[in-house]
Amino acid sequence: DGGITQSPKYLFRKEGQNVTLSCEQNLNHDAMYWYRQDPGQGLRLIYYSQIVNDFQKGDIAEGYSVSREKKESFPLTVTSAQKNPTAFYLCASSISGLAGGWTDTQYFGPGTRLTVL
Amino acid sequence: RKEVEQDPGPFNVPEGATVAFNCTYSNSASQSFFWYRQDCRKEPKLLMSVYSSGNEDGRFTAQLNRASQYISLLIRDSKLSDSATYLCVVNMNYGGSQGNLIFGKGTKLSVKP
Q1: What is the 3-class SS of B46-61, one letter each residue?
Q2: Coil, strand or helix: which one is A62?
């Protein structure tokens, strides 16, 4: 089955720890994205990548880091510098990031719920 | 003006009702428009793309009004299973070919028996 997978589904972190959230896709999509969703809020873009070995900051990149060494994988690290990391993290992918066509339609993984203890 | 605005609801309707959601967007250069559905504690799922000519998929009809910069979603004959939050999504094209999707906060729909 083609799709996007995220792991783990639930993650608990102690203050001061870095944690890495996994995102893998087998859709052969060029573009991948990380969002954060807080209760009652819309999705906010953390980082995105249009192509392997390249990525760009989104609206709320501070305290996060990413890598894109493979087309299929776009892991997100939540560092200790992120002051309020408890949230629902969603990874998405699209055929490309070019605007104006169906290729920028984004498909989401099931998400990771991160809680800081 | 917020980039993508939606009425948060909740919309509480009986089964079989027709319900309409509106969404306004700020960037007149936007080129891609979508409605996503998000169930409680789940990921958003694409409901339908919105085309300039309007489009229909079963009980769902989406329309785009570029002059007024708003998008609508009409759900006819509501089912209990339609209960969810509906997200309006717009590509914000800032003058180049590259643009990122901006998500509204969503409108919550609750269909009652």
Answers
A1: EEEECCCCCEEECCEE
A2: coil
Are B108 and B11 within 8 A, CB to CB?
A: yes
What are the backbone angles phi and psi of residue A64, rounded to the nearest 5°? -125, 155
Which of A72-107 are b and which e, b meaning 16 or more Cβ less than 10 Å from the residue's Cβ? Answer: bebbbebeeebeebebbbbbbbbbbbbbeeeebbbb
Amino acid identity of residue B52, one-letter, is S
Say yes or no to pLDDT of B87 above 70.
Answer: yes
Token pair 């428009």 in the structure block, residue: B33
Q: What is the DSSP letter of A39?
A: T
B91/A104 touch (CB, cutoff 8 Å), yes or no: yes
Q: Which of A88, A104, A108 sits opposite B32 (nearest CB)?
A: A104
Residue B83, pLDDT above cutoff 80: yes
